[in-house]
Amino acid sequence: MKTVVVITRDVVLTSIVERLVKDLYKVLFFPTVQSSLDYIYNSVPDVLVAYMDADPRAVTLVNELKSDPIFGHLPFLAIFPDDVTLPVWESLLADDYLRKHRVVEEILSRVDLCIQRAERMVEVNPLTRLPGNITISKQIQKRLDSGELFALAYADLDYFKPFNDRYGFSRGDEVLKMTGRLVLNTVKEKQPHGSFVGHIGGDDFIFMMDYDLIESTALLVGENFDRIIPTFYDSEDRALGHIASEDREGNKRTFPFIGISTGVAHNKYRSFSHYGEMAEAASEMKKYAKTVKGSYCKMDKRYCPEPTQKA
Questions:
Q1: Per the domain annotation, does 126 fall within a domain?
Q2: What is the mean pLDDT of each run of 10 residues along the chain (311 residues)?
Q3: Which of 4, 79, 88, 229 has the fewest C-beta atoms under 10 angstroms from its C-beta?
Q4: Helices 133-146/275-289 angle, 10° precision
């Protein structure tokens, strides 16, 4: 059950909100913003509702809370007395507001809307515009908590650093943008609904799909990637089939074209309780994939029951 923190000294307003909201949400009441902070810092509710009437420090405290990177996502619904002039919204970091006389009709729908809006908001990688780490973690955990059968693919680029060293970060960024578009388009073409693509950062990407679709999709991503990636190399390097650059120890050597290695974990035969466990399993498979020359996908086949022997 999601939690709503309500800040008000108004006894009538307390009674109304509790009556209308308590069946769907856990509701906690505090008389001031200051008195609610310990709970908010330790438990992080899903919505903050405050009656902005008598607490002179309420605006300052709420703005400080919303300005904190950890709590900036916390939806804040402000309730104002009917006779109070609404503030200039730059001075109060509210996500929505209500007049007191509208509370009975609208409080539940506004709380619902605040939660839905917050869940739709995602942080994105500025380069690829794909969802980033926070959203990725939430998506994995949400599927695990719901008991959904799914697979998680963790992909990264082989020999990307030598490419960056040879051609510069600008062209490297173009490769990353191409990779993001390629993964997204391939995944959505194979599974338009219920799939997810994210960009962890750097040259690391993830995607989630139905168990029976992900391996073929990962292989197709690799095939298409290998077809496209030579176009990012200069013609003389394309003719050679490799580039000359320095390794991590500073030694001159040649490197093949960039490839994409993908490891896949799933919960068909193995249960996970935390998103980090599943991500680690996918990362292990990715390490195996990177031992194979060229773009490759390795799916976790551990824990798979042995086929039944016929008599």
A1: no
A2: 93 95 95 92 89 86 83 89 86 92 95 87 81 90 95 96 92 96 92 91 95 96 96 94 80 90 95 95 95 92 69 48
A3: 88
A4: 110
